[in-house]
Structure formats: C-alpha cells, structure tokens
Amino acid sequence: MKRKFSPGRKWTLFGLSWALIITMCRAVRWPNDWAEAQWLINYDYGLIKRALLGAVFEPLIMVGAGQSTETVIRLISTAFMGGFYAVLLWMIIRILRKSNFNLNSILAVFAFLTSSYVVMSAHLIGYFDNVLVLLTVLACILVLKGKSWVAAAVLSVGVMIHETIFLVGLPSVLFLAFLVKTRELKDAAYSGPLYRPLTRAPAPFILPLFIFVFLFIYQNLCLESESIRSQLTMHLSQFEFIGPVYRTLVPGDLTNPFTEYFNDGAPKFLSRVFDLGHVLRILPTLAVLLILAGKTLRRMKYFGKLFPALVSISLLPLMLHLIAADTSRIWTYPLIVAIVALWGLYETIPEGEIVRLESSLFGICCLMIIMANIFSMTPLMDELVDRYNFKIRLIYYLPMLAVIAAVFSRNTGVTANRS
Fold first, then answer.
1. DSSP, res 321
2. What ranges do the domains of the chain cover?
3. What is the pTM of this model?
4. Strand partners, 385
5. Beta partners for 379?
6. Per-residue CA distances from 94 to 81, 342, 371 (Å)
7. Residue 219's closest CA among 46, 43, 42?
C-alpha cells in the first residue's frame, strides 16, 4: 500500500516543483543550430561518434523537409527534456521520502533545484545531456535490481550517444554497484578485507569501457576525417535552419580525433578548473549534497570508506576540461552526479539507517546557498546569461520562499515541542 502525502508534504512538493519550473525558465529556449545539427547526423557516412540518436530517429526526423524537420527535432528534444525533469523530480521525491522529509534534506534539495545545473539543463535542450542522465538513472535502477550486465549494456548505448557518459554517468553507476555489494556484505556479516569481494562489482562495466576505447582508437586512427567532414557539410547544407557556420563546425567536432581536443584543452585545464566564478557558483551546493550523503555513509560499517569515492566521482566530470571548452556547462555536471549518487545511496539503505541531519548551521548554510543561487547569473552557451533581473527573480521565487518559510516554521515548532 502506497503512503499518501500529508498536506504539509504536498505543499513542499509544490514548492519544489515551482523552484524547478522557475529555475528552468531562466534559460529555456529552443534547440540552437549546434543541437539541431547533431540530430541530423547518422551512420550513413561512417562510424561517427554521437550519431546513434540521429540514426534511430532518422525516419521520424526526415519525414518532412525544411521547417517540418526542425519542428520534429524540437518536439523530440522537448519530449526528452520533459522526461528528464520528470525523472529528476521522482528522484528528489524518493530522497525526501527516504529521509522522512527531514528539514535539512528539503533545504538541500531546494539548493539543488535553484542551482546553475538546472539553469544550464534547460538551456541545453536538444543536446544529449538529458538523454545521458535518463540512461544513467535507468542503469542505476537495473543495478538495484541485480541486473548489472543489462545496466552495462545501457551504458554502452550511452557511450555511442555521447562519450561524456563515461565520466558523468558510468562512475555513478559503479558507485552504486559498490554500494549494493557492500550492502550485501554487511547483511551477510562479512568481516574480511573489502577489496576481494568488491573487485567483482565492476566486472560487467568492462563493456562500456571497451566501447569507449574502441571509439577512441577508431576516431584517432581509422576514421577518414576529411572525406566524412566534407560529406557531412554537404548533408547539413540541405537544411536552411542550420546556420552556415554550424554546417562545417559540427562535422569538424564529430570527426576530429580526440588527441586534437586534448592538445588544445590541456594547457587551459587549470584555469578552467580553478575559475573562481564557477567554484563559487557550484561548490557550495555540491558540498551540502555531499554532506547529506556523507553523514549516512560514515555511520555505517564499511560504507564510510566509500565517501572519498563519492567525492571523487562528483568531481571527475571536471576532467572534461582537458578536451572541451564548454567550461560553464562542464562545471555543472558534479551536481547531477551528486544528486544521482545521493538517490542511489538512499535506495540502497533501509530508511531506519539513513542519518537525518538536525544541524541548525547546515540549514542556515542551505538557506544562504538558495538565496545565492536565486540571484547568481549563470554563464550559458552562445555567450548568453540567464534571464530576469534581480527584482523579477525575487517575485517569481516568492511562492517557493513562502513554502520554505512554512516548512522551516513547522519543523522549528516541532523541535521546540519535543524539547
């Protein structure tokens, strides 16, 4: 029998949904020319990276011509974005249910929903980022059900869609696989060294690793880049809604060897990773999510040893700065890794063993982060910045702030009555 939400919790969910919608509206747009061009690339011209979705949806995309083709791409992109946000809200509701709607858990989730990640995710409509998150969550669910080999196959598909899942999605699934295995060891009262049984957990995920290595080698050594680039440029030239610049830029991006991107990005790596603006925008929100997970991890036998792994996989996407120039986009990835990991942790552990933070200092920090997220300006793609001035933003976020005030007041009253 499913538990129903109390009126107070329903209002909390309303506030969370409102936060998601307003934060999303700060940057939502139609797919830009780059995103639309990627949907028009398939395997007709060779084994090209990121061409899988274009090949799968080609019959639907090419059903018309000109403006109708662009409309179909927009509809597909919107459908994937809607599915992504639905899954994101589902994960957040699961986190809150598992934590019994603890005040600090609610505030941490509000911090995430007002963060630059949600702003950027709306701006990236048409890109494959939200598809990769959906595949990552699906793989996590399969791991929780004991179907790691199927999860590995899903991630392999993800590598064919976009290779960044290797750093953004695969580590989260591996982390969950270790959590599940550790849980099994704890339930079996295992007292030996962890490294032996845990080495079996990642075995299925050699499959996406193999696919990634194969694509890397093929892209660098076997792909006839110049010929394919020319053909792709001619192909994209058929579509007037793709700007002239992107008719050559996208084919170049999809056919250039990985080593070329590394040679260009490596010298700029440190300046991108230590960019103060991005550090101040992202790390506070990331910190509260990691603290929330870390409190539960450190209380449990064996699990405490996985906390450094959680921090590592959250920061691992920043390694993409070695090969990519989308600094503001890449800097938001640690937040989605952390929220997926937090959800996976809570799904692995019985509710009674989840540590519910009661720290007033943590709650105050979350409130400060929420306000900072509301008023921060996120650098977007195409040299844009998220919309709405400070006054308009405050007005739009007022219903969310009212819910936070009500939740805070109710929980403070409950605490006072208990004391």
1. G
2. 29-414
3. 0.91
4. 379
5. 385
6. 20, 10, 25
7. 46
Specify the residue for token string 């890449």.
330
Cα dihedral 269→275→280→281 (10° resolution): -70
* Residue 419 pLDDT class (50, 70, 90 cuts): very low
For residue 86, give the amino acid letter.
A
289 exposed, middle or buried (CB, 10 Å; 0-12, 13-18, 19+)? buried
Question: DSSP per residue over 55-101, as a string?
Answer: HHSHHHHTTS-THHHHHHHHHHHHHHHHHHHHHHHHHHHHHHHHTTT
Strand ranges (DSSP E) for 334-385?
A: none
Quick: pLDDT tens for 195-237.
Answer: 555 566 677 888 999 999 998 888 888 778 888 889 999 999 9
Of 122, 104, 130, 120, nearest in space to 370 by CA: 104
State both tokens at 335.
């937040």
**What are the angstrom distances between the C-alpha of 341 and each of 130, 175, 281, 336, 405?**
16, 7, 20, 8, 28
Cα dihedral value 316, 318, 322, 328, nearest 10? 160
- Mean pLDDT in the chain? 88
Structure tokens at 95: 């986190």
CA angle (179 as vertex; 177, 184 as ends), nearest 5: 95
H helical segments located in 206-357: 206-217, 225-236, 244-255, 258-265, 269-273, 276-298, 307-315, 327-348
Q: What pLDDT shows up at residue 85?
A: 97
